[in-house]
Design a protein that fits this description.
The chain is 18% helix and 28% strand. It is an alpha/beta fold.
């Protein structure tokens, strides 16, 4: 079976800047990521979480790290660049993982974040032109 380095994107929103609201949204997002992509933490190289400037109650990586197997994944939290009129209270991720080339990649957009990528707001397979090849 051939494996390639793949990139998976996703986003969600929260109703308020609280630990509980952020924990619920990030957990829901990561549950969907794992379910739709049949992704195992040991296949992940890294995860970058970004949050809009109105979210600072907790780091998304702090929510992900206690998940089974996620403690060995390199994670980084950053603040999303602010653009006037952009979606508020938004959490995004970019994950790099080694996955079989035969497995489609599903990007996960939930809640109000479905507005960001309406074309990816339901399970979508990664197009061949989006596959990143690596010899590592």
């Amino acid at each position: 079976m051939e494996w390639r380095l793949r990139a998976i994107r996703g986003a969600t929103t929260v109703s308020e800047n609280t630990v509980e609201a952020i924990r619920d949204a990030v957990s829901e997002l990561l549950d969907e990521l794992e379910r739709r992509n049949q992704l195992q933490p040991e296949e992940m190289i890294s995860v970058t979480f970004s949050v809009t400037r109105d979210l600072d109650a907790i780091f998304p990586a702090a929510i992900a790290r206690p998940r089974p197997g996620w403690d060995n994944v390199a994670m980084l939290d950053v603040q999303q660049m602010h653009v006037e009129g952009s979606l508020q209270r938004c959490i995004r991720f970019l994950i790099h993982a080694y996955l079989p080339t035969s497995v489609p990649v599903h990007h996960i957009y939930l809640r109000e974040a479905t507005k960001l990528r309406p074309d990816w707001s339901f399970p979508q397979a990664l197009q061949a032109s989006q596959v990143i090849e690596s010899k590592v």
